[in-house]
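Project outcomes to date are best conveyed with an example. Our students and postdoctoral researchers have been running inverse folding experiments weekly, and each run begins with a structure described purely in tokens. The record below, which covers 427 residues, was selected by the lab manager from last quarter's runs and is presented without edits.
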């Protein structure tokens, strides 16, 4: 299948082009209808806004923001909003594209969306941050709503900002609309288990991987790159709930290694008392952060930034399984090297969907105005993640392909089915 040039359509940039290449690989294997394929290659809606914010000193500064809907055939758009000085349309459109496939893998009634504002939040006061957030959400209100598009936290946004978003929308429409965003504080319609959700999902998937490769998870040696929210919860849950041994961890300050296993609870306490860093942890050997990726372990979990595994270090990776907790941690060139070495790579669009799944739970609870306890959240998440993993693995076996391509095949088939059954209106 080839990219459509009809209507002078052009990729938004290199990131979006790479995302389309992943899609096309799967589309070719599954022999996707090119009419549907060409539709799914492009975002459905793109909004770019320029909006004023009154700064504390009285100046009015203009900021740029985006909201993109990739596809809404299966339901409302779903995806986070990030605040970053380098945010651009290429990045936001690509993330919306990937969100479509993440939601479809879990068969959630969502399509992909994403948003962002070009801003350095470290230069804003609390009041400036609030004014920016409320004005931006008012600017994109034509795109959002509990039945249209449900944003969530992302880079440099959090539950507090989601509360501002919810309040802004509610004041504008004249009633309290809990379901307009997810990732809110629990007291404002947020869900139990949201903070741990992505890490718990990665842990569930890691356990399922061990089953299919016939490996006792209690006897596995695991290295984790990244010890923020996702990395620390992944380590904690794998260690405490599944009995896995975490032998190495890295963050921006460096790496640590302990052949006998790291006491994750103790490490979290140390990190929290050490400016959020693991450097200097006394109960493990200090090693360079990049060395954590190349240790002789059973499972490697990159849970930090994109492009951590490249063609430069892929040949040195010894792990037989990689579970992608971060978004885009493996470059295409590195993946080719790893697959040729027989490494099983569980892609990000499957491994880290625990967050959007619990966001879906939050939305459902908000719409019903009936809330679940933490045990029900965890039980439902486990059931859905296990089902998704097994469906992707069966697709991998059916098409004799890698896990990433299999995940795309499964998710594309679901969205394509929705597009086909809905048809094209007007005819």
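After processing, the design step wrote out the following sequence:
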């Amino acid at each position: 299948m080839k990219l459509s040039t009809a209507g002078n359509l052009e990729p938004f940039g290199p990131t979006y082009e790479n995302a389309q290449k992943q899609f096309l690989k799967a589309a070719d294997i599954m022999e996707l209808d090119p009419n549907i394929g060409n539709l799914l290659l492009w975002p459905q809606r793109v909004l770019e806004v320029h909006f004023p914010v009154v700064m504390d000193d009285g100046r009015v500064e203009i900021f740029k923001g985006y909201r993109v809907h990739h596809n809404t055939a299966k339901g409302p758009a779903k995806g986070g909003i990030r605040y970053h000085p380098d945010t651009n349309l290429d990045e936001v459109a690509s993330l919306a594209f990937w969100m479509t496939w993440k939601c479809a893998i879990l068969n959630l009634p969502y399509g992909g969306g994403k948003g962002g504002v070009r801003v350095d939040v470290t230069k804003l006061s609390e009041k400036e941050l609030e004014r920016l957030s409320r004005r931006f959400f008012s600017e994109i209100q034509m795109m959002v709503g509990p039945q249209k598009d449900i944003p969530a936290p992302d880079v440099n946004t959090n539950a507090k900002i989601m509360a501002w978003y919810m309040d802004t929308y509610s004041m504008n429409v004249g009633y309290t609309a809990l379901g307009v965003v997810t990732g809110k504080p629990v007291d404002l319609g947020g869900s139990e288990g949201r903070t741990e959700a992505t890490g718990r999902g990665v842990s569930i998937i890691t356990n399922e991987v061990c089953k299919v490769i016939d490996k006792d998870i209690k006897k596995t040696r695991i290295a984790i790159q990244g010890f923020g929210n996702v990395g620390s919860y992944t380590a904690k849950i794998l260690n405490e709930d599944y009995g896995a041994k975490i032998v190495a961890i890295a963050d921006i300050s460096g790496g640590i290694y302990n052949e006998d296993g790291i006491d994750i609870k103790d490490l979290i306490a140390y990190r929290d008392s050490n400016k959020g860093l693991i450097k200097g942890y006394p109960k493990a050997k200090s090693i360079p952060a990049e060395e954590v990726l190349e240790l002789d372990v059973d499972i490697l979990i990159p849970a930090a930034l994109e492009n951590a595994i490249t063609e430069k270090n892929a040949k040195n990776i010894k792990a037989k399984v990689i579970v992608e907790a971060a978004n885009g941690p493996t470059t295409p060139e590195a993946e080719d090297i790893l697959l040729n070495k027989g490494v099983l790579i569980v892609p990000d669009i499957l491994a880290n969907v625990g967050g959007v799944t619990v966001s879906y739970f939050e939305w459902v609870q908000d719409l019903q105005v009936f809330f679940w306890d933490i045990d029900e959240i965890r039980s439902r998440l486990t059931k859905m993640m296990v089902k998704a993993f097994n469906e992707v693995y069966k697709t991998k076996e059916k098409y004799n392909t890698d896990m990433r391509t299999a995940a795309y095949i499964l998710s594309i088939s679901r969205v394509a089915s929705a597009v086909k059954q809905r048809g094209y209106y007007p005819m």
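The longest strand covers residues 45-54. The chain has 13 helices and twelve strands. The training component of this project remains on track.
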